[in-house]
């Protein structure tokens, strides 16, 4: 029989994160951040004191050495607390891409950005998407040329989370750039990962987009104009950056699934509380089967997603700790989580808002923040929906059935 449960330590950790959220980000605080479009750095520093920032980094690097199941617990609780998902977005971007940077970084890079970010004194994110596309990583145009012991980077990145935060808090991005010509049969080769600080000469943060949701975290773009960075800021081996990027996307996507799970659970709880109290035709509207059946379906699908997400996080842990699964086996399961989670969460928010009627459509109701925020993951943040389907189909049918080859 499979032992599918959390350890006592993990249950205590969940309780501690929940209490931190209740104290530090009540719904009034979330609305304030959504309205004013900013996350106070004091929250990041408080999360640092809790050991939440880049928590999967090993203790010797300043992290807590948490496993991915435990990281998903934090993601679920943050998603439940911040229905706008802005703070969870900032946290998971740092947690996933900070993990990859730390895993492949030099000690100089760890001292310059990882240890400060863990404390909440810097921001680290992912700078991959370009104006010509986001899903086709191998087609990116940013270049890096080795000159002596330095690299010269040129290119443009767009739709990047946290550009304003990187200016205010300090820090930088994981950036992938082409370092060698790619052979026709393997366009993903010849790319290298770098850590690029946003205060480096030649970096120009050039735009802030007015997003539909998750208003408290910025989305922008930046130019790289002959940006010189030392070889110590190179991440992993030269020309092997594509694989680091895929590892980062996997890390981000499993946390996204947990954030969506927590956010959806909050919407369902909010809706259930309302339909037990709101009356129509002399009885609570929760007695009407049109609402009951939709609610029951939502709960069942959410429980299935939650189980899939935690099982996949466990598979990640087994892969890293015991090499029990291959990277592609785990990637397939992560793609399934990312395929399902945002759309289910969006549907649950939509259903709950409809149960609430006119009140659900106002900013008096917190659910509208969730609908706007979750939509960012439906449209493609950290990987478009059809990319997840492509990954799953590739692993089920084999590489002879990849559509773009």
Q: Give helix % range.
A: 40-55%
Q: How much strand?
A: 15-25%
Q: CATH top level of the largest domain?
A: Mainly Alpha
Extract low-pLDDT stretches.
none
How many structural domains in the coordinates? 3
Order of helices and strands: HHHHHHEEEHEEEEEHEEHHHH
Architecture (CATH level 2) name of the largest domain: Up-down Bundle
Q: What is the CATH superfamily classification of the largest domain?
A: Butyryl-CoA Dehydrogenase, subunit A, domain 3
What is the averaged pLDDT score? 94
Number of strands: 10
Morphology: globular
**What is the rounded distance between the termini?**
42 Å
Q: In the CATH scheme, what's the topology name of the largest domain?
A: Butyryl-CoA Dehydrogenase, subunit A, domain 3
Structural class: alpha+beta
Number of helical segments with 4 or more residues: 12
| Cα-atom radius of gyration | 21 Å
Largest sheet: 4 strands, mixed
The largest sheet has its strands arranged as 1-4-5-8
């Amino acid at each position: 029989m499979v032992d599918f449960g959390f350890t006592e330590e993990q249950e205590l950790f969940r309780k501690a994160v929940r209490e931190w959220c209740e104290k530090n980000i009540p719904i009034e605080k979330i609305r304030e951040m959504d309205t004013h479009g900013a996350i106070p750095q004091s929250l990041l520093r408080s999360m640092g004191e809790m050991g939440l920032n880049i928590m999967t980094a090993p203790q010797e690097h300043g992290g807590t050495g948490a496993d991915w199941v435990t990281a998903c617990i934090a993601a679920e609780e943050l998603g439940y607390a911040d229905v706008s998902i802005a703070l969870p977005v900032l946290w998971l971007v740092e947690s996933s891409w900070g993990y990859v940077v730390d895993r492949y970084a030099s000690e100089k890079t760890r001292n310059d950005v990882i240890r400060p970010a863990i404390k909440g004194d810097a921001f680290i994110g992912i700078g991959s998407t370009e104006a010509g596309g986001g899903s086709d990583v191998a087609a990116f145009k940013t270049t890096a040329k080795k000159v002596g012991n330095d690299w010269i980077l040129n290119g443009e990145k767009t739709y990047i989370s946290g550009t304003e935060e990187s200016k205010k808090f300090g820090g930088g991005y994981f950036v992938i750039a082409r370092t060698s010509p790619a052979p026709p049969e393997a366009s993903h080769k010849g790319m290298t990962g770098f850590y690029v600080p946003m205060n480096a000469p030649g970096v120009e943060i050039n735009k802030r987009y007015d997003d539909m949701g998750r208003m408290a975290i910025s989305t922008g773009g930046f130019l790289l104009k002959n940006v010189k960075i030392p070889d110590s800021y190179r991440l992993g081996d030269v020309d092997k950056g594509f694989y680091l990027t895929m590892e980062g996307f996997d890390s981000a996507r499993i946390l996204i699934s947990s954030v969506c799970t927590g956010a959806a659970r909050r919407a369902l709880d909010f809706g259930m509380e309302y339909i037990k109290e709101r009356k129509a035709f002399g009885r609570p509207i929760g007695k009407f089967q049109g609402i009951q059946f939709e609610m029951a379906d939502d709960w069942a699908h959410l429980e299935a997603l939650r189980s899939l997400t935690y099982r996949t996080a466990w598979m990640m842990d087994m892969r890293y700790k015991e090499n029990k699964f291959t990277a592609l086996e785990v990637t397939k399961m992560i793609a399934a989580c990312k395929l399902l989670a945002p759309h289910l969460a969006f549907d649950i928010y939509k259903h709950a808002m409809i149960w609430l009627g006119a009140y659900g459509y106002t900013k008096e109701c917190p659910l509208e923040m969730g609908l706007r925020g979750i939509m960012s993951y439906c449209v493609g943040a950290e990987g478009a929906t059809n990319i997840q389907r492509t990954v799953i189909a590739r692993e089920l049918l084999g590489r002879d059935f990849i559509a773009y080859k």
